[in-house]
Amino acid sequence: MIAHVKGPVAAVTVTSAVIEVGGVGLQVFCTPATIASLRIGQPATLFTSMVVREDSLTIYGFADADGREMFELVQTASGVGPKVAQAMLAVLDPERIRQAIAAGEVSTLTTVPGIGRKGAERIILELKDRVGPVTGASHTAGGGVWRGQVHEALTGLGWSAKDADAAIDATAAELPEGTEPDVSAVLRDALRTLGKGRR
């Protein structure tokens, strides 16, 4: 297993980064918050989890070991694969996931795309005794935090703060009222908006 990768950032996209390790560019799939912390040409260290399938070998990267451990833990629950696990960490940070599972917060887990009520109840049932101690309060991607994550990701990809804000405002106007936005989806929509502006 590849536990971490370290090297200069060769490329960054909406969902992944390429880290150069020993002359080889490794594509690592990351959450928007992790992507936002990376800069092309700058050194980076990502804690990684490798998912091996018959026809693929995929590396997921995290800014810290806690993110990687939560990614691997939630996949031990029935019906949770790497894509749903990554979506959980895109919407909720590891401590918030821990809190939600420990407290049985079904509504918090269902804010994650791909997790319905039954899935959330199953995750809570199977992982409640395995998430470890819950510490201080944390936050979800709602309540304005998601805006900061999307803004950081856009500016990290080279857009100006002014353009990023305008794209986020345009995207936010189309979101259903009272719902927790999916950070990855908002980022994609904002990039589409910015792309149209360049034509």
From TrEMBL:
Keyword check for DNA-binding: yes
Ranges for domain Helix-hairpin-helix DNA-binding motif class: 72-91, 107-126
Region (Domain II): 64-141
Superkingdom, natural source: Bacteria
GO cellular component: cytoplasm; Holliday junction helicase complex; Holliday junction resolvase complex
Record flagged with keyword Lyase: no
Localization, UniProt: Cytoplasm
Molecular function GO labels: ATP binding; four-way junction DNA binding; four-way junction helicase activity
Domain III: annotated segments: 149-199
Keywords: Cytoplasm, DNA damage, DNA recombination, DNA repair, DNA-binding
A Gene Ontology biological process term: DNA repair
UniProt main location, coarse: cytoplasm
Pfam families (alphabetical): HHH_5, RuvA_C, RuvA_N
Subunit structure as annotated in this protein's UniProt entry: Homotetramer. Forms an RuvA(8)-RuvB(12)-Holliday junction (HJ) complex. HJ DNA is sandwiched between 2 RuvA tetramers; dsDNA enters through RuvA and exits via RuvB. An RuvB hexamer assembles on each DNA strand where it exits the tetramer. Each RuvB hexamer is contacted by two RuvA subunits (via domain III) on 2 adjacent RuvB subunits; this complex drives branch migration. In the full resolvosome a probable DNA-RuvA(4)-RuvB(12)-RuvC(2) complex forms which resolves the HJ.
Record remark on domains: Has three domains with a flexible linker between the domains II and III and assumes an 'L' shape. Domain III is highly mobile and contacts RuvB.
Function: The RuvA-RuvB-RuvC complex processes Holliday junction (HJ) DNA during genetic recombination and DNA repair, while the RuvA-RuvB complex plays an important role in the rescue of blocked DNA replication forks via replication fork reversal (RFR). RuvA specifically binds to HJ cruciform DNA, conferring on it an open structure. The RuvB hexamer acts as an ATP-dependent pump, pulling dsDNA into and through the RuvAB complex. HJ branch migration allows RuvC to scan DNA until it finds its consensus sequence, where it cleaves and resolves the cruciform DNA.
Record protein name field: Holliday junction branch migration complex subunit RuvA
